[in-house]
Amino acid sequence: MAFVTGRLGRPLRSSLLQVVQLHLSRTMGASQEDFENAMNQVKLLKKDPGNEVKLKLYALYKQATEGPCSIPKPGVFDFVNKAKWDAWNALGSLPKETARQNYVDLVSSLSSPSESSSHVEPGTDQKTPGSEDVVVTSEDGITKIMFNRPAQKNAITTQMYREIILALEAASKDNSTITVITGNGDYYSSGNDLTNFTKIPPGGIEEVAKSGAVLLREFVDCFIDFPKPLIAVVNGPAVGIPVTLLGLFDAVYASDRATFHTPFSHLGQTAEGCSSYTFPKIMGPAKATEMLIFGKKLTAREACAQGLVTEVFPESTFQKEVWARLKAYAKLPPNAMKISKELIRSNEKEKLHAINAEECTILQGRWLSDECMNAIVNFLSRKAKL
Ligand SMILES: CCCCC/C=C/C(=O)SCCNC(=O)CCNC(=O)[C@H](O)C(C)(C)COP(=O)(O)OP(=O)(O)OC[C@H]1O[C@@H](n2cnc3c(N)ncnc32)[C@H](O)[C@@H]1OP(=O)(O)O
């Protein structure tokens, strides 16, 4: 797949889109006119449809033109060709004509009027600033920043990181008293959108890793420096960075449906959000190890017992109870709250910035590792879920 490490050789660096286009350009004399039109349409798509769709297109194209997959299965470390082989092989003995039709249907759904205007396929991050993926509202002295991609479990796209940075900067200066981060739908957030790694610029995967590390550092710095009380309203499960960041919040209220999961080793990655420092400090090194190294998932009550969560509420009354409490807190004198936060947090700030910088440097290297690439390929090809 597109983002697979350069260490494995040049062909693996090319994006899956390029691979699909290469195949498409080698026209194999498909006789059906609709099929040929669809192939041309793919080349004209304005937006990258995402790797999952590209894999489907590739598989259907191969099936339509060559029939069932009969080539040898690529080696386990040949990620790109293996993902393609898996997708093609999964079509089994689907007749060529059906594959051709499915290909045409799929392309037509991608080229629908909604796609050519503002709709973006799930997993892409090309929404314009002000998109609906992060919703910011201000009421009753509370600025609420809400992850709003419920269909993708509020996975955080590159664009969303940028929008949250802007929202925090604005909230630090607006006339609200406290700031809340929450999620829309059944998840708080499933963490970094794993397709963030699959959009490969001309500089290759190294550039993706470098710009990712810069963005992550800026993002986490905003939480370290945020001057007002910052509250997490954890409405459901959380995975990865939305969990690690909790160590930088001033209070964390969780539904009893919420879970807290940092499966970094499973993903070939390492701790971020200053959790390599805040978690051992909050819960002690042994419990932090279980979470950050072994990926142990905590229930809300376990997270509360470890000190990561302030209080757990029954799901049935969660929203009502938490917002009533927050509205009351938001009426407290804002300057007193800010100054108290400064007292509690300021002596750690310099250290936290240094830790953030180090975690980002280490992660930049991890993102180029085979372990990480393999985990992402597995997720995207739907072989692995956490
Ligand atoms: C640049 C800064 C980097 C910062 C570093 C951050 C690191 C992290 O945050 S590491 C954590 C990364 N997150 C994950 O690995 C979670 C991956 N997701 C899952 O394992 C599962 O989706 C699930 C357990 C969160 C939910 O499973 P389930 O209830 O079965 O729901 P689906 O898998 O069907 O999900 C629905 C829909 O949402 C898409 N999706 C969910 N999470 C992500 C994600 N993190 N990245 C990309 N896409 C995600 C999922 O693919 C489904 O999409 P469709 O198939 O298109 O419906």
UniProtKB/TrEMBL annotation:
GO terms for cellular component: mitochondrion; peroxisomal matrix. CDD domains: ACBP, crotonase-like. It is an enzyme of class 5 (isomerase). Residues 109-121 have a biased composition (Low complexity). GO terms for molecular function: delta(3)-delta(2)-enoyl-CoA isomerase activity; fatty-acyl-CoA binding. Pathway: Lipid metabolism; fatty acid beta-oxidation. It is found in: Mitochondrion; Peroxisome matrix. The keyword Chloroplast does not apply. Its EC number is 5.3.3.8. Coiled coil: none annotated. It comes from the Eukaryota. Keywords: Acetylation, Isomerase, Mitochondrion, Peroxisome, Phosphoprotein, Transit peptide. Residues 109-133 are annotated as: Disordered. Signal peptide: none annotated. Residues 31-116 form the ACB domain. It catalyses: (3E)-tetradecenoyl-CoA = (2E)-tetradecenoyl-CoA; (3E)-nonenoyl-CoA = (2E)-nonenoyl-CoA; a (3Z)-enoyl-CoA = a 4-saturated (2E)-enoyl-CoA; (3E)-octenoyl-CoA = (2E)-octenoyl-CoA. Able to isomerize both 3-cis and 3-trans double bonds into the 2-trans form in a range of enoyl-CoA species. Has a preference for 3-trans substrates. In the C-terminal section; belongs to the enoyl-CoA hydratase/isomerase family. This is Enoyl-CoA delta isomerase 2. It comes from Dipodomys ordii. The gene is Eci2.
